[in-house]
Design goal:
Distance between the termini: 45 Å
Number of helices: 17
Radius of gyration: 24 Å
CATH class of the largest domain: Alpha Beta
Order of helices and strands: EHEHHHHEHEHEHEEHHEEHEHEHHHHH
Oligomer: single chain
Number of domains: 2
């Protein structure tokens, strides 16, 4: 049975679908490359090391459909492989440049060793296929794979159009089954966005459990006896697990969270902004904009004058923070377990996967140490979510509208800054539905299929999030405009007798995700 307390450590891996085949190098494609090098590959390395050492425990990973598509896209795989070697070339230039710099050269050598290890993991361990590595790790029981809804829409924004949610859920199930050969049981709701009745839609597609922000569970009717420390069951028969706040604050908080410690690597000092263009080479530029290289030599200290990064000190600190994290959860379980009768006490600790490695460089080492510290505990164990979604419960609860965004509801994704997005969505859906009512031909079906892709991409919550936070705001607005215009153009093409389908060909090659989606329409 294991330890009585179940610590559910969950990483949510998602990136918006970004693919620009018309350009040799595109700035926003680097988001994927950074995430692979700094989060996904290091996580694979950590989990395989733990398996070799025989350390017990399971971590939970939800992977969104757009990310599944990008990780299996031949063009992006080829570009990422090139990216690894371009980084290696730059590191070796830096080794020559700073060979006499006693302060910097240890950090550069660290990056050189790390880059070689990444290339080995990518080419030899993963065979350039992260999804195969994830599946292998799940087969070894150290990883539980979950999915996420469609193109990551903020679902409460679409509750008046349940058919659009159904298509997103069909895509959810099909993409996971295509990637991993089985239907998903657990689903991460984008932004933890929930509205009353969504559980019934999830049940239609065979999902068994989902996750909510704390207040989505605590304010449920009737109130749950054990708060967020045990799953609740909804009237649709699904288990719902709420986030436990204290474990999140320890890692997430900008003021008091572990990643802000001055011994850790500074995220915002990349050499891309400190070297001449001629030295970096054209690969690390998109137009006039430098592209981050991943080489950051300083730790979080002071203002402009920062101290040099010390990888080995940071590694030891990550171990200390893992020890503290486990000790704090043990204290919670010690107080909790006597009061949770007939249930396994659980703590859900969910995070964006990219926090571990990309934003918090030492995050993967923290996860490795977390496994090792938990393995010595008699109070808790790192557990699969599926282990706690088996407790029979005769009572049912009704979770409330909620999200894990700023304010806890919808203000990030439904506000004046994106007020025109939703009328545009409903106009696109009207045009789409009109075409679906017409007599189907092979030509029309192709057009409708691509329209569906464009509408799904338009619905991504990432665009509103970026606009709200003024981060890559211009790109987010351009994507909303692009998909909207594409739908209008496809509608006009469908009603015309035009035989030239070059524009349709172009869109099918560019926004090519879900190649099987036509079978669902």
């Amino acid at each position: 049975m294991g330890a009585p307390g179940k610590l559910l450590f969950l990483l949510h891996a998602h990136l918006p679908f970004v693919r620009h085949p018309d350009y040799e190098r595109f700035l926003e494609e680097n988001w994927l490359f950074e995430a692979i090098s700094e989060t996904y590959l290091p996580l694979v390395q950590v989990l395989f090391r733990l398996l070799e050492k025989g350390v017990p425990g399971t971590i939970n990973l939800s992977v969104s459909p757009p990310l599944l598509e990008m990780l299996s896209d031949p063009l992006l795989i080829e570009r990422y492989s090139k990216h690894l070697y371009k980084q290696l070339e730059l590191i070796e230039k830096e080794m020559i440049r700073f060979e006499a710099d006693a302060e910097k050269i240890p950090v550069i050598r660290f990056y050189h060793s790390r880059q070689k290890a990444l290339i080995h993991t990518w080419e030899k361990v993963c065979q350039k296929n992260l999804l195969t590595a994830f599946k292998s790790l799940e087969d070894s029981k150290i990883l539980t794979l979950l999915t996420c809804v469609g193109t990551h829409p903020f679902l409460p924004a679409y509750q008046s159009d349940p058919d659009s949610i159904r298509l997103q859920l069909e895509v959810t199930s099909r993409s996971f089954e295509t990637a991993f050969g089985k239907k998903p049981k657990g689903v991460w709701l984008p932004e933890c966005g929930y509205f009353d009745g969504l559980d019934s839609l999830l049940a239609e597609y065979g999902f068994e459990y989902f996750f909510l922000e704390t207040h989505g569970v605590l304010l449920a009717e009737p109130p749950p006896t054990y708060g967020v420390f045990a799953p609740i069951k909804t009237s649709a028969g699904l288990y719902c697990i709420g986030r436990e706040q204290s474990s999140s604050v320890e890692v997430w908080s900008r003021k008091s969270g572990y990643p802000g410690h001055p011994e850790y690597r500074e995220f915002f000092r990349d050499i891309a902004f400190e070297r001449e263009r001629k030295y970096l080479g054209e690969y690390f530029f998109a137009g006039e904009s430098p592209i981050e290289t991943g080489l950051k030599y300083y730790r979080i200290t002071g203002g402009e004058h920062k101290m040099i990064y010390r990888p080995w000190n940071a590694m030891r600190l990550a171990e200390d923070h893992a020890r503290l994290f486990i000790a704090n959860r043990e204290a919670t379980f010690t107080d909790l377990i006597p009061h949770v009768e007939g249930h396994e006490a659980s703590i859900l600790s969910p995070y964006d996967a990219e926090l571990f490695g990309h934003w918090w460089f030492e995050g993967p080492l923290f996860i490795e140490a977390l496994f090792e510290k938990a393995a010595t505990s008699s109070i808790l164990e790192l557990a699969s979510v599926e282990t706690i979604c088996k407790t029979p419960d005769s009572s049912t609860h009704r979770p409330v509208f909620s999200s894990w965004g700023e304010g806890g509801f919808s203000s990030v994704w439904m506000n004046d800054e994106v007020q025109d997005a939703y009328p545009r969505f409903f106009k696109m859906k009207s045009l789409y539905n009109h075409l679906r009512s017409l007599k189907k031909t092979k030509r029309l079906h192709r057009i409708i299929t691509q329209m569906a892709r464009e509408i799904l991409l338009f619905q991504s919550s990432d665009w509103a999030f970026m606009i709200h936070n003024h981060s890559a705001e211009g790109y987010a607005k351009s994507r909303l405009d692009e998909h909207y215009k594409n739908v209008l153009s496809l509608y006009d093409l469908a009603l015309s007798k035009q035989s030239d389908l070059k524009e349709l060909d172009r869109l099918e090659k560019k926004n090519n995700l879900f190649p099987w989606i036509g079978e669902l329409l």
